[in-house]
Design a protein that fits this description.
about 280 residues; 7 strands; alpha/beta; Rossmann fold
């Protein structure tokens, strides 16, 4: 049975830009109060403040923290406030892990790169983009802030099955993230908590634009998607809201594609108008 999300709380890790930002706004439109964790320089202070005001404009509460979401100290500092804000309404209804901070250095030396990836860079990428999901889930569970009906979402990508020259560390992190989702789903099932990975299609976000070879990749994907466009952050936000409108934990442990059938389209077969280039209409 679908239910309203109004009055509940979400915690979004990676809340200030890209998909995380869209999820904050999308859930606020549903009446969900927002706790956001982000890691930005002073140059983005006004932009983040404007986002917080936009969220509050939907009549909900918003509390944002500019700190490293992957750091243990950050969790220790934020958890008491999360407990104070959400305790009266049953804790955190929706936890979103949308951290996109990792190294984009190839594994081996090649022209244009002075050094291959170092162990600290690989470990940092895995810790931020994958392992931090486990640590936040542990702390929130132990504090009694994730209860039956809660939903956990981790943002993954098609990079787990595709290769780009500089994407190796992030690809490994996303693969680990999906493994963590499956394990957490099994361990949290007795508590009635659902855990899923959301595999957004290629989305033009700051994280994607940081990939050195992104331009050609984006052009190919947009041409081949049956919808004739890239995935938009709002597409993902709508999916999160829809999946969260039930107390059921029966959809759990999955990697759910939100990509307009991007991965199902044969490479090179689709044009921008959705027509099969072999002359058939699908």
């Amino acid at each position: 049975m679908l239910k309203s999300l109004e009055g509940s709380w979400c915690l979004v890790l990676g809340a200030s830009s890209g998909i995380g930002r869209a999820i904050c706004l999308g859930l606020a439109r549903e009446g969900v109060n927002v706790i956001g964790v982000h890691f930005d320089t002073a140059a983005r202070t006004d932009e983040v403040a404007a986002l917080v005001e936009e969220i509050r404009g939907y009549g909900v509460q918003a509390s944002f923290h500019n700190t490293n979401a992957a750091a243990r100290r950050s969790r220790e500092q934020i958890l008491p406030e999360i407990a104070e804000l959400t305790g009266a309404t049953g804790g955190v209804r929706i936890l979103v892990h949308s951290l996109a901070f990792g190294t984009l250095v190839p594994f081996l030396s090649r022209e244009g790169w002075e050094k291959p990836i170092a162990s600290r860079q690989l470990e940092m990428t895995l810790d931020v983009m994958a392992h931090s999901l486990v640590y936040w889930t542990q702390d929130l569970t132990e504090a009694g802030l994730l209860r039956s009906g809660s939903k956990i979402y981790a943002m993954t990508s098609a990079g787990v099955v595709q290769a780009l020259p500089s994407y190796g560390a992030v690809s490994a992190a996303k693969s680990a993230l999906e493994a963590h989702v499956r394990q957490l789903a099994c361990e949290l099932a007795p508590r009635g908590i659902a855990v899923n990975a959301i595999r957004a299609g290629v989305t033009l976000t700051p994280a994607l634009q940081a990939i050195p070879e992104h331009a050609g990749y984006v052009a190919r994907v947009a041409e081949n998607n049956p919808h004739g466009r890239l995935t938009r952050p709002d597409d993902v936000a709508e999916a999160i809201a829809l999946l969260s409108r039930t107390d059921s934990s029966w959809i759990s442990g999955n990697t759910i594609g939100v990509d307009g059938a991007e991965l199902h389209a044969a490479a090179g077969a689709w044009g921008p108008d959705g027509a099969d280039q072999r002359g058939e209409r699908q």
